[in-house]
Design goal:
Elements (H helix, E strand, L loop, with lengths): L3 E9 L4 H10 L4 E5 L7 H5 L2 H19 L16 H26 L1 E4 L2 E5 L2 E4 L4 E9 L3 E3 L7 H4 L4 H4 L8 E5 L3 H12 L3 E6 L9 H11 L4 E4 L1 E7 L4 E6 L5 E6 L1 E4 L3 E3 L32 E3 L10 H15 L17 E3 L5 E5 L2 H6 L4 E7 L4 H5 L6 E7 L5 E7 L3 H4 L1 H7 L7 H5 L8 H10 L1
Parallel strand pairs: 1-2, 1-6, 2-3, 6-16, 8-9, 8-14, 9-10
Antiparallel strand pairs: 4-5, 5-6, 7-15, 11-12, 12-13, 17-18, 18-21, 19-20, 20-21
The structure holds flavin-adenine dinucleotide and nicotinamide-adenine-dinucleotide.
Flavin-adenine dinucleotide binds next to β2, α2, α3 and α9.
């Protein structure tokens, strides 16, 4: 039997797992990093998620800019517009390979890597596929999530793409069915539609995304100008002579049939816990397979922490990184004060589609459900000076403030640079009182889009 190697810190997962590994390295701990995809160090974000997809979205934005110049008195001959799809994809893949190689070099120099799938074979005891055994004082599980494929009859035989497959394309599809109108559906749907693919998005609800209702309404209306939207659930997929067909049940007893060259499935994520044999070490998962953690990101095992997509609490890179630092710090300190608890109250997110969406805090529906005493205010881009200058795009910012306390409960922005604009509100919400006066006191540059937020707060 091989000898078990012991480390002070053991991390499973080469994505946001690198955050805990980084902070452990800063503390001069011995660190083992175990990950099953050595060619994809950096994980989903670097290789199959945030970075490559936003690189593609940037090309879509470039096309949009060119198409919109006439309204600023600049005329280009759109007949000369040529999309080098293979070039766009190759550039994205080259940048991705560079990022992953850089991350791998760092891992190999800063810690002890094990490039293998791993599973628990005992209490805090891990085994790689080739039989190497690893244990540690503190363990971190950051094994992420993968595309969840819903039970659609015939889908496997018909063939479909996930977010990973799409990144390998060389040829642009002429038409595409996107199953799921969430983050991935509308970001990749935007990319393909802007480049000229005929896109159909199938979503159970007639409004896309899981945002504040007003945001969903405007987003769906605007996105619907680019793509065909079909309300219902994909139930069955088949091959046709020309491509693929999906049958959709709309919930009212009707069904539609949609045909396209290809299918992209974007219906959520499934935590990677099944193959870890967590029962061997006493770590519990919930009904979705997500690891259960307390507010300090500790699992049911006192020395094992979990964070990132595998705990399923807001599957974002920035969230995973924040959790990773906190989990590591908590593991080195038995002091379980409230300020060491992970807070998602001011955890923002953005959807990089068109229009762009960003939000932090509660939606109006959540405020109502919680019985909050609050007021709402909305300001449109077209109502501020810079908004007019940039062409009065459809979009607005919406603020929810608690009466009496003036505490910011939530803010939602849909329109250009939403992801940038939300940060002023995120900072204000991170103060102890989350008091709106912080933003009101700030002087906002005129004319800039930041006045959308400044004026919104002034008027609320
Ligand atoms: C298409 C797409 C676009 C996205 N865009 C954004 C965005 O714009 N902004 C944003 O904030 N978030 C975005 N996200 C979400 C973001 O990518 C994730 O929240 C984040 O990458 C999660 O990090 P993680 O470390 O939890 O998981 P991962 O990065 O998936 O890392 C998990 C690691 O564990 C390894 N692993 C799994 N099981 C085992 C095992 N048994 N043994 C060994 N290793 C194992 C995996 O190979 C992987 O390296 C996007 C996601 C997708 C899919
Ligand atoms: N910008 C970002 O931060 C970003 C971008 C992409 C992905 N992500 C992360 O990745 C996660 C996964 O993204 P996603 O888009 O796959 O999931 P999602 O949860 O955002 O959306 C999935 C959508 O698919 C729909 N759906 C489910 N079953 C269906 C069926 N049979 N037919 C039709 N529609 C169906 C759901 O109702 C939902 O609207 C996100 O939740 C997010 O955490 C983040």
């Amino acid at each position: 039997m091989t000898e078990t190697q012991h480390f002070e810190v053991v991390v499973i997962g080469g994505g946001s797992g690198l955050t805990a590994a980084y902070f452990a390295g800063q503390d001069n701990r011995s660190v083992a990093l175990i990950t099953d995809r050595p060619e994809a160090i950096g994980g989903t974000c670097v290789n199959f998620g945030c970075i490559p997809t936003k690189t593609l979205v940037q090309s879509a934005r470039a096309v949009d800019v060119i198409r919109s110049t006439a309204s600023f008195g600049v005329h280009v001959d759109l007949r000369t517009l040529r999309i080098d799809f293979a070039g766009i994809m190759n550039n994205m893949r080259a940048a991705r390979a560079d990022n992953a190689a850089g991350a791998r070099r760092w891992v190999e120099s800063a810690m002890t890597p094990f490039f293998s799938p791993v599973r628990f074979v005992g209490d805090k005891l891990l085994e790689t596929e080739d039989g190497r055994r690893i244990t540690g004082d503190k363990l971190f599980i950051a094994s992420g999530a993968r595309a969840a494929i819903p039970p659609i009859d015939g889908l496997a035989d018909t063939g479909y793409w996930t977010n990973e497959d799409v990144l390998e394309l060389i040829e642009q599809p002429a038409s595409l069915i996107v199953i799921g109108g969430g983050y991935i559906g509308v970001e990749l749907g935007y990319f393909f539609a802007a480049l000229g693919t005929e896109v159909t998005v199938i979503n159970p609800d007639d409004k896309l995304l899981a945002e504040d209702d007003d945001v969903r309404e405007l987003f769906t209306r605007e996105f619907g100008k680019r793509a065909r939207l079909v309300t219902g659930r994909a139930k069955r997929a088949t091959r046709t002579d020309a491509g693929k067909r999906v049958e959709v049940a709309d919930g009212a007893g009707h069904s539609h049939s949609i045909e396209a060259e290809q299918i992209l499935v974007a219906t959520g994520r499934q935590p990677n816990t099944q193959s870890l044999n967590l029962a061997a070490t006493g770590v519990q998962v919930d009904e979705r397979g997500a690891i259960q953690v307390d507010a300090h990101l500790r699992t049911d095992h006192a020395d094992i922490y979990a964070y990132g997509d595998v705990i399923g609490q807001g599957m974002f890179k920035h969230t995973s990184s924040a959790e990773g630092e906190l989990a590591y710090r908590n593991s080195q300190n038995d002091d379980h004060r409230a300020d060491r608890a992970m807070s998602y109250r001011a955890n923002p997110h953005a959807v990089f589609s068109d229009p762009e969406v960003a939000a932090v805090g509660l939606t109006e529906a959540e405020c109502d459900k919680q019985g909050q005493d609050y007021r709402v205010s909305t300001l449109h881009y077209a109502d501020i000076a810079k908004g007019k200058i940039v062409g009065a795009p459809a979009g607005f910012a919406k603020l929810l403030i608690e009466n009496d306390s003036e505490r910011i409960l939530g803010c939602h922005i849909v329109g250009p640079d939403a992801a940038l604009l939300i940060h002023e509100v995120v900072v204000a919400m991170n103060t102890t009182a989350a008091d709106a006066s912080l933003v009101r006191r700030a002087i906002h540059i005129h004319p800039s889009l930041s006045e959308l937020v400044g004026t919104l707060f002034d008027q609320t």
